[in-house]
Design a protein that fits this description.
Rhomboid-like fold, elongated, protease, mainly alpha, 370 residues
C-alpha cells in the first residue's frame, strides 16, 4: 500500500507549477487529495477497539447490580460520581486504569498498556473518537497509514510514561494521548509544508479548536491531561521526522527505465529534504522517551515538587471529586438501610439498601470523606 496520494495535475508541470500562471499548485489541508482514497484502516481499527473496550467496561461496571439501581440512564454512575457519564472508579481500576498505588511495584506495569484503551465516560468517548476520526483520517489520506500508525503508537507510549509521573490516588485513563499525538503531527505537517496548502489559517483554527475542547475535557476527573501533553509533544516531533511533502507531481506517462530512475531520484530527494531538522527532532524525541523511562522506573512523583500541577489534570468543583482520599468509615445496617459515616469529617450517607460489596463501600467512603 502506498504512503502518498496522487492528485490530478493536468495543467501543471512535473514540479507542481501551473504552466500558465507559473504558480505552484496548492491543496486544502483538510480535504481529499484524490478521488482514489486510501483505506484508513489505522483509525478504523482504533475506533473499533475503543468501542469494544468501553462496552466491556460498562459490563464490568454493572451499575444496576453493584449500585443497586442508583444509576444515570440505567447503566452509568450518577453524574456527581462520574460527570462524564461513565463507569465507577472501581470499574476503571479493574479494567486497568492508572493509579499511584498501582505503580509502586512491577505488578502494575501492565496498566501502562491498558490505560490508553480506556475512556472515562460517554462524553469522553464521543468527543475523543470524533476528533480522532476528523484528524486521523485526514493524516492517513495525506501521508499514509504506516506513518500515521507509527505516530499513533509512539504517542500512546509517551503519554502513558508521562502519566506515571503525575498520576494521583485516583484512576486515570490516557486514551486521548493518541489523539493529541495526531494533533501535534498535523501541526508539524502543516507548518513543514506551509506553502503547499491553500486553507492554512482555517486548518490552524480547526486544530486549535479540537485541541482546546479535548484539553478542557482532560480537566475533568479520570482523564489524564499530562499524557495528552506528552502525546502532543511526541506527535509534533515525529511529524517533522516522518511526514514528507504530500505527493503533488504528475505520474510519468512512460514507464521506461530512464523515467523510472528520474522518478525514484526525485522521491528520494523529497524524503531526504531538511535532514538537519529531521535528525534534531528525532534526537529530541528519543531523549524525551529515555528521560521518561528513567523517571518512571525511579517511581518519581512530581506532585511532591509541584503544588499546582494537579490543577492541570483536574479542576476541583462541587460537582465532582478530583482526588480519592484514603478514608475510614463506619457502616451500620438499620431496618434495611445502610448508614455510612466518615470518621474524619463525621459526614454520613444513608442508602436505602444493604448488601454492598467491600469495593463499593470503599468507593462510597472515599466520596463521602472528600
Amino acid at each position: 500500500m502506498q504512503d502518498t496520494q496522487i492528485v490530478d495535475m493536468k495543467g501543471f508541470d512535473d514540479n507542481g507549477v501551473d504552466e500558465v500562471t507559473g504558480e505552484k499548485q496548492r491543496i486544502p489541508f483538510f480535504g481529499s487529495m484524490s478521488k482514489n482514497k486510501e483505506t484508513t484502516w489505522v483509525i478504523s481499527l482504533f475506533v473499533f477497539v475503543h468501542l469494544v473496550v468501553f462496552f466491556c467496561t460498562m459490563i464490568v461496571n454493572n451499575c444496576l447490580s453493584n449500585s443497586h439501581g442508583d444509576c444515570a440512564l440505567m447503566f452509568f454512575q450518577p453524574l456527581h460520581e462520574n460527570p462524564l457519564l461513565g463507569p465507577s472508579s472501581s470499574a476503571l481500576d479493574r479494567m486497568g486504569a492508572l493509579r499511584r498505588i498501582h505503580l509502586t511495584n512491577i505488578h502494575g506495569v501492565w496498566r501502562l498498556f491498558t490505560s490508553p484503551l480506556l475512556h472515562a465516560g460517554v462524553f469522553h468517548l464521543f468527543i475523543s473518537l470524533s476528533s480522532a476520526i476528523y484528524i486521523g483520517i485526514n493524516l492517513e489520506q495525506k501521508y499514509g497509514p504506516s506513518r500515521t500508525g507509527i505516530i499513533f503508537i509512539l504517542s500512546v507510549i509517551t503519554g502513558s510514561l508521562m502519566a506515571t509521573l503525575f498520576v494521583q490516588n485516583r484512576p486515570d485513563v490516557s486514551s486521548s494521548a493518541a489523539l493529541f499525538g495526531l494533533i501535534g503531527a498535523s501541526f508539524s505537517g502543516l507548518i513543514r509544508d506551509w506553502k503547499s496548502f491553500s486553507n492554512k489559517f482555517q486548518a490552524v483554527m480547526a486544530l486549535l479548536l479540537v485541541f482546546a475542547v479535548n484539553f478542557a475535557l482532560g480537566m475533568l476527573p479520570f482523564i489524564d491531561n499530562f499524557s495528552n501533553i506528552a502525546g502532543f509533544m511526541a506527535g509534533s516531533l515525529l511529524g517533522y521526522v516522518l511526514f514528507f511533502s504530500p505527493q503533488l507531481r504528475k505520474p510519468a506517462l512512460h514507464k521506461g527505465l530512464f523515467d523510472y530512475g528520474v522518478k525514484k531520484s526525485v522521491a528520494l530527494k523529497d524524503k531526504l529534504g531538511r535532514p538537519t531538522l529531521r535528525i534534531v527532532c528525532l534526537l529530541l524525541f528519543l531523549l524525551m522517551v529515555a528521560g521518561l523511562i528513567v523517571a518512571a522506573l525511579s517511581s518519581i512523583d512530581i506532585n511532591k515538587y509541584c503544588s499546582w500541577c494537579h490543577f492541570v489534570d483536574c479542576v476541583p468543583s462541587k460537582m465532582w471529586i478530583c482526588d480519592s482520599k484514603s478514608s475510614f468509615c463506619k457502616t451500620t445496617e438499620l431496618r434495611g438501610q445502610m448508614v455510612i459515616r466518615c470518621l474524619q469529617s463525621d459526614k454520613l450517607k444513608i442508602l436505602p439498601y444493604t448488601g454492598i460489596s467491600a469495593t463499593r463501600l470503599e468507593e462510597l467512603c472515599s466520596m463521602i470523606c472528600s
